[in-house]
Amino acid sequence: MPGDIAADLLDAGAAPDLTALVLEKLTHDDETVARTTLADLAEYAGEETPFSDLSVLAVRR
C-alpha cells in the first residue's frame, strides 16, 4: 500500500527524492520505522509489499 501511494504522489508531481517514512505497528512492541524516498518506495507499487497492513506513510517536504 505505501508503494501505491508513493507512486500516486509521484504521478501528481511530487519530487522523487522526498523523504518518506513508513511507520509500522505503532504502539506495538515490534513497531518499526523505515526511512526511504518516494522513488524507492514507489518501486513496490502494484506488487507485494514488505510493509505491514498496520502502517502509516509520512512524507517530508
Explain what the structure shows.
- The radius of gyration is 11 Å and the shape is globular.
- The chain has a single domain, classed as 2-Layer Sandwich (Methyltransferase, Cobalt-precorrin-4 Transmethylase, Domain 2), CATH 3.30.950.
- It has helices at residues 2-11, 38-42, and strands at residues 19-24, 32-37, 55-60.
- It has 2 helices and 3 strands; from the N terminus they run αββαβ.
- A 3-stranded antiparallel beta sheet has the order 2-1-3.
- It is of the alpha+beta class.
- The model has no long low-confidence stretch (mean pLDDT 92).
Topology:
Elements: H1 2-11, E1 19-24, E2 32-37, H2 38-42, E3 55-60
Antiparallel strand pairs: 1-2, 1-3
Précis, in short:
The protein is α+β, with helices and mostly antiparallel strands.
Portion in beta strands: 25-35%
The total count of helices amounts to 2
- The count of DSSP E runs of length 2 or more, i.e. the number of strands, is 3
**Major β-sheet strand ordering:** 2-1-3
Stated plainly, the CATH topology is called Methyltransferase, Cobalt-precorrin-4 Transmethylase, Domain 2
Assembly type of the chains comes to single chain
Q: What helical percentage do the residues reach?
A: 10-25%
State the distance separating the first and last CA atoms: 20 Å
How many structural domains can be distinguished in the coordinates?
1
User: Could you tell me the mean pLDDT?
Assistant: 92
**Parts with pLDDT < 50 across at least 5 consecutive residues:** none
CATH superfamily placement: Tetrapyrrole methylase, C-terminal domain
Rg, nearest Å: 11 Å
Corresponding CATH architecture: 2-Layer Sandwich
Helix and strand element order: HEEHE
Structural class: alpha+beta
Coarse morphology = globular
CATH class: Alpha Beta
